[in-house]
Amino acid sequence: MPIDINLLRKEKGGDPEVVKKSQRERFADETIVDQVIELDEKWRKSNYQMETLKMEFNAINKEIAQRKKASKGQDKCEDLVEKSKDAKTKIEEAQKEADELDKERNKKLISIGNIVTD
Questions:
Q1: Cβ proximity of 55 and 10 under 8 Å
Q2: From the CB of residue 62, how many other CB atoms can be counted at a distance below 10 Å?
Q3: DSSP alpha helices (H): ranges in 7-112?
Q4: CB atoms within 10 A of CB 43
Q5: What angle in degrees, to the nearest 10, is found between the helix axes of 31-70 and 78-109?
Q6: Cα separation, 91 vs 85, whole angstroms
Q7: Which 3 state secondary structure label does DSSP give 4?
Q8: Residue 77: partners with Cβ closer than 8 Å, 6 or more residues away
Q9: Is residue 108 within 8 Å of 36, Cβ to Cβ?
Q10: What is the pTM of this model?
Q11: pLDDT of amino acid 2
Q12: Predicted pLDDT at 70
């Protein structure tokens, strides 16, 4: 079972130096800790971007629904429908990137051993 990622997140109360020290005491590579932290930051940014795109997509679809309701179906909202399709494509790409970063981060995270206590 891998260590909890929150042990590497300073803002969550974690201390990466403790994990690095533990890796040194095991005679293991401590640079893996920095690699996991970097991948975690990239994943978090990618995930945030994906969530932002989802909010934009929902706002576009809501506007489409409102315009169609107001025009009683006469307005086809082709411009907004096109924007909605583009947004959906961007969401899928961002989801794929976030998933790849998550897999890579977790793959490296499981190579870190439990914390060695004194």
A1: no
A2: 10
A3: 16-25, 31-70, 78-109
A4: 21
A5: 160
A6: 10
A7: coil
A8: 63, 64, 67, 68
A9: yes
A10: 0.82
A11: 73
A12: 87
pLDDT along the chain (118 residues), means of 10: 86 91 90 95 96 96 89 82 94 96 95 82
pLDDT given for residue 118 in this prediction: 65
Q: What does the alpha-carbon distance between residue 96 and residue 88 come to, in Å, rounded to a whole number?
A: 12
Cβ atoms of residues 34 and 41 within 8 Å:
no
> Which pLDDT score is estimated for 36?
95
> How far apart (Å, rounded) are the C-alpha atoms in residues 68 and 117?
64
Radius of gyration of the chain (CA): 22
83: its two tokens: 């924007």
pLDDT at 68: 85
Q: How far apart are the first and last CA of the chain?
A: 21
Residue 35 has which token pair?
């690699």
Which one, of 34, 31, 17, lies nearest residue 115 by Cα?
17
Residue 83 · residue 60 · CB < 8 Å: yes
d(CA 81, CA 62): 11
